[in-house]
């Protein structure tokens, strides 16, 4: 039994005449009569009564036609759903990110992607860089945003592009002696109570601070550890010390906060977006298209790695 048999039966029930039904279907009457007879043999019951007044469904025919209508509706919906999934309009995207990524281009990318693909389920997980890298390699995430290029076994199978660059800045409350200064030196910071992000979550950042202050720096050993940039700023405004963090945290509006450049200029690890090279899912492809549109530098990197506008290769992770 094929879909055309269902359409033929429904057309005959609607027009109640073989000739009119055949004309509506765009076929000759004899083939329609044969197809209906074949259908009745396959079903094992007479579906239509042929009378002088016309052709009418039997009780068995009414039951069959009810299911046939629903079956054709479901088949049409299946075709529609398949097309939407192939275009990345449905499905899910699992993304892990560090909190400070929300101060960069990530919100604009997520906002546009959500508008363009409202029926894609976004599963967002805040986590440290090392954790999100491990989850991405294990196939538990589709995209990870963290600090620096992913490292460790399996990282060579990932595509990584820079979506943000940062320098080290200091933040103090307006009552602090450094408030009003355009910059502070590392030597000045050595004498302060520092507030930093946790090294176990962002090892590349803490490694950079150790290189800047010295491996055995008393300032770092006695530093207050804050969960994220918002906490760093809040503690600094409260007078708990001098906060150190990425320059993108200057975009956080906070009354009573003063930001200073750190001299010498100290670059922090890039904000990097990564995904599996063999993931050719349409949802990821759609997400990368939005990334290209919002982050030209990242788009250029993707084009160099994958080819202009080209999605990742389809592979074992295709969903």
Automatic annotation (TrEMBL):
Start and end residues of each stretch annotated as Disordered: 300-319
Database matches in CDD domains: PBP2_LTTR_aromatics_like
Entry annotated with the keyword Zinc-finger: no
Pfam families xrefs: HTH_1, LysR_substrate
Xref: InterPro entries: LysR_HTH_N, LysR_subst-bd, WH-like_DNA-bd_sf, WH_DNA-bd_sf
UniProt protein name: LysR family transcriptional regulator
HTH lysR-type domain location: 1-58
Keywords, ordered alphabetically: DNA-binding, Transcription, Transcription regulation
Signal sequence bounds: none
Organism for this UniProt entry: Streptomyces hebeiensis
Domain of life, per lineage: Bacteria
Bias-annotated ranges (Basic and acidic residues): 302-319
UniProt keyword annotation of Amino-acid biosynthesis present: no
Family: Belongs to the LysR transcriptional regulatory family.
Family matches, as PROSITE patterns: HTH_LYSR
């Amino acid at each position: 039994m094929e879909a055309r048999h269902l359409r033929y039966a429904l057309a005959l029930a609607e027009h109640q005449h073989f000739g009119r039904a055949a004309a509506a279907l765009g076929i000759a009457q004899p083939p329609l009569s044969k197809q209906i007879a074949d259908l009745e043999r396959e079903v094992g019951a007479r579906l239509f009564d042929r009378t002088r007044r016309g052709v009418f469904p039997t009780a068995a025919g009414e039951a069959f036609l009810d299911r046939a209508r629903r079956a054709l509706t479901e088949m049409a919906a299946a075709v529609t759903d398949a097309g939407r999934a192939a275009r990345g309009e449905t499905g899910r995207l699992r993304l892990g990110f560090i909190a400070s990524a929300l101060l960069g281009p990530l919100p604009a990318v997520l906002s546009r992607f959500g508008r363009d693909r409202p029926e894609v389920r976004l599963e967002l997980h805040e986590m440290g860089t090392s954790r999100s890298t491990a989850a991405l390699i294990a196939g538990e995430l589709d995209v990870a945003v963290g600090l620096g290029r992913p490292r460790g076994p399996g990282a060579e199978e990932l595509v990584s592009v820079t979506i943000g660059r940062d320098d080290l800045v200091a933040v103090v409350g307006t009552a602090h002696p450094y408030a009003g200064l355009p910059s502070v030196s590392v030597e000045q910071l050595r004498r302060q109570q520092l507030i930093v992000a946790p090294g176990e979550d962002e090892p590349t950042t803490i490694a950079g601070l150790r290189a800047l202050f010295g491996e055995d720096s008393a300032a770092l050993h006695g530093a207050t550890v804050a969960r994220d940039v918002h906490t760093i700023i809040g503690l600094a405004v409260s007078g708990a010390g001098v906060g150190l963090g990425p320059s993108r945290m200057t975009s956080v509006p906070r009354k009573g906060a003063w930001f200073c450049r750190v001299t010498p200029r100290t670059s922090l690890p890039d904000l990097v977006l990564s995904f599996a090279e063999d993931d050719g899912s349409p949802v990821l492809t759609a997400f990368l298209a939005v990334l290209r549109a919002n982050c030209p530098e990242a788009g250029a990197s993707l084009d160099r790695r994958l080819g202009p506008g080209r999605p990742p290769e389809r592979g074992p992770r295709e969903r």
